[in-house]
Amino acid sequence: MAQEELFLTCFFVLQLLLLHLYLRILKIILMKLSLRLRFLIILIVLTVCGKSQSTFSASNPFYSQSKLPYEAPAFDKIKDADFKPAFEEGMKVHLAEIEKIADNPAPATFENTLVAMEKSGRLLDRTNNVFNVLTGANTNPALQSLQEEEAPRLAAHQDAIYLNTKLFKRIEKVYNDRNPLKPDAEAKRLVEYIYQQFVLAGAKLTDASKTRLKKLNEQEASLSAKFTNQLLAAAKAGALIVDNTGELAGLSQGVLDAAARDAKAKKLDNKWLIPLQNTTQQPVLQSLSDRAIRQKLMSASLNRAEKSDSNDTRNTIAQIAKIRAEKAKLMGFASFAEWKLQDQMAKTPEAVQKFFAQLVPAATAKAKAEAADIQALIDKQNGGFKLQPWDWDYYAEQVRKEKYDLDDSQIKPYFELYRVLEDGVFYAANQLYGVTFKQRHDLPVYQNDVRVYEVFDKDNSTLGLFYCDYFKRDNKSGGAWMSNMVGQTKLLGTMPVIYNVCNFTKPAEGQPALISFSDVTTMFHEFGHGLHGLFASQKYPTLSGTSVARDFVEFPSQFNEHWALDPKVLYHYAVHYKTGEPIPQTLVDKIKKAGTFNQGYRLTEALAASALDMQWHTLSPTDSLKNVDEFERASLKKTGLDLPEVPPRYRSTYFLHIWGNGYAAGYYAYQWTEMLDDDAYSWFEEHGGLTRANGQRFRDMILSRGNTIEYGKMFRDFRGHDPNIIPMQQSRGLIAR
Ligand SMILES: [Zn+2]
Asked: How many whole angstroms from 670 Cα to the centroid of ligand 1?
């Protein structure tokens, strides 16, 4: 004992001496260094110390549930530095919870496995939900770099759960014993869904196949990243450079100034640069009057990634398609699409092909009729040429101006943002579903433009919170979206906290926010997602609200767009902001008529892109693929979408959705959900339109159901039959009503 103490004392003295020596050496070194280097070393030491201090503690706002009503995020307390420790701790705790479930010595039951899984990962969820709000709508460099750092870690975290063999064995046991759960339909659906997700992620593969799948996943991920980078570089290099401003006749001064500025930034003095947008058609094509320059720009767009240089994506996409086909084969499916459609509403590639077949003839016929109209205009102007894709938008714009001219400055005074929200969007929800809204000023927001409303049900009971953030900001992503800050679940006793984000132009101080009709539609759309979230009435978080298949999730949102033009709703909100006059009928007629303009072209180009997506993803690994262009040509011909005047919205070589953004075998979902929403709306038309009773039925059978019923059955139960294509064809103006 004494010897041990002596040893420890000696050891301690020795350590002190050594420390003293280190410090002296360090001081000598520091004195010899330049001032800048000394500063750098001190900075590094401080950073390291700072990092080690950022441990997770009760002072972190994510440590426990928010004390605010509805567990709303305490934006006034959350700091950027809180996220990293919360993510680290959140993943650690979640993994420990999952391991505990997997290692449970008791036989697997629904309660000790599925319900326990549903309850796990709360800290990680809380952190992630708020992180997504801020990185999407109010980001900064610190959050962006943390986002890059955490993305692969979160992906690996998911893998660690889905490929946990012991956990899967328990889920499989519960799945095999699931029939006694039958009276509780939601529980049964949960077991079936979770089991399916594990199987689709590869849980049933042999160890050797799992290793192979992981390897293929890695290869695909790196090829996908390569594609994204190649495309970015190709688009940048493909920008059109013009020497003579005369060639740019037709462009507005604003666009010309931007083109000059962009050229100057590349040290191209006295030149103009037109950057390439993602899509085949380029926005300036509708204004450029010089036909040769239009052709040049279109060709730059179509061939951006096919220049046989390092940015040529043809080889990359051929490899990705092959890897995906091989992955599908490993999983026991005939093609990647067959694998990926398992948990979607469409279920099979054949169902998607059948859907296309119902739409393609009418869409292409309308496009051909539009082409004939445009050709007539070209001939009338003695153009002396045959319409080509680079002419389409230029002449279509002239037809539009002549036939349907919608002057935004005439329309906008009738659409004041918050009047549209409260007297339009909220009013429609009140008339259909009986809900009411009250603005709250006591809850913290992440930015001053954000508004919060509390939502009440028909009996005045509370439903949830709705945040809206409508104005464009530099630190906000483009587009519009909805999501949850807090998800609804009876199991955990939480109610929905929903938000909508848009990018409308912010008015000058003290001026009203006047928006376009397309912005109005966007508000109804995003709020449709919001209602799907607010009416969620699920026990289990996995099945709650908008957690549904991609080819179903846009159904409630697109459906809600219909009410923007319903007379009962429209005349309630579309009132002149100064005079209080309701919107004149002539303007309403113009808005309605413009809705079907050029839809043959728009739908055909989208269907062509969808068809390419499906053709690429129904390949088998043994299909030989020598020539990407040849494959694309053959695919379009085979599907009847090879109209010379209407190229696909994205050609294979720059189709970012499917090679880089997770929409592989899923681009069709945009058109599919349109079929659902138009058909559902036609049910309303057949049954007296906007009434409380009709709204209640839609709420009960669709909006409140989350993913608790098979999608096809859910739709059939509401509509009385499988989705019908006719209403979509009518609303696109492909056939007469
Ligand atoms: Zn949407």
From this structure: 9
pLDDT tens digits along 507-522: 998 999 999 999 999 9
Question: At 155, which helix (H) or strand (E)?
Answer: helix 141-162
Q: How far apart are CA 680 and CA 528, in angstroms?
A: 14
Following CA atoms 277, 278, 279, 285 in sequence, which dihedral angle do they give, to the nearest 10 degrees? 10
How many whole angstroms separate alpha carbon 191 and alpha carbon 187? 6
- Condensed to tens digits (0 to 9), the pLDDT of residues 389-439 reads 999 999 998 988 887 777 788 899 999 999 999 999 999 999 999 999 999
CB 597 within 8 A of CB 404: yes
Q: Using alpha carbons, select from 337, 374, 446 the residue that is nearest to residue 76.
A: 446
Residue 166's nearest CA partner among 211, 99, 214 is 99
Sign of the four-CA dihedral 245, 251, 256, 258: negative
CA distances from 602 to 266, 291, 607 (A): 34, 22, 9
Please pick, among 118, 306, 416, 526, the residue that the annotation labels catalytic.
Answer: 526
Predicted local confidence at residue 593, as pLDDT: 87
- Measured in angstroms, how far is the CA atom of residue 225 from the centroid of ligand 1? 26
Q: Place 335 in a pLDDT band, splitting at 50, 70 and 90.
A: very high
CA of 517 to the centre of ligand 1 (A): 17
Confidence label for 8 from pLDDT (cuts 50, 70 and 90): very low
Q: What is the pLDDT of residue 50?
A: 42
CB 516 within 8 A of CB 411: yes
Q: Ligand 1 centre from 503 Cα, in Å?
A: 14
How far apart CA 68 and CA 444 sit, in angstroms, is 9
Q: Which of 1-10, 378-387, 485-494, 655-664 has the lowest mean pLDDT?
A: 1-10
Over residues 269-281, mean pLDDT: 93
Is residue 526 annotated as part of the catalytic site, yes or no? yes
Task: Give Cα 108 distance to the centre of its chain.
Answer: 36
How many residues comprise the chain? 737
The reported pLDDT for the residue numbered 47 is: 46
Taking only the tens place, the pLDDT of each residue in 114-138 is 999 999 999 999 999 999 999 999 9
Label residue 624 left, alpha or beta by phi (over 0 means left) and psi (-120 to 50 means alpha). beta
263 near 271, Cβ under 8 Å? yes
Residues 594 and 298: beta-carbon distance below 8 Å = no
Q: From ligand 1's centre to the CA of 407, what distance in Å?
A: 26
The protein residues having their C-beta less than 5 angstroms from ligand 1 (an ion) are 554, 557
Q: Can you tell me the distance from the alpha carbon of 531 to that of 546, in angstroms, rounded to the nearest whole number?
A: 9
Tokens of 152: 């692969």
Average pLDDT over residues 475-498: 94
CB hemisphere CA count around 108 (13 angstroms): 21
Tokens of 506: 């912010």
CB contact set of 651 (below 8 Å; sequence gap of 6+): 280, 302, 612, 632
Distance CA 414, CA 520 (A): 11
With a cut of 90, say whether residue 232 has pLDDT above it. no
Q: Give the rounded distance of the alpha carbon of 249 from its chain centre.
A: 37
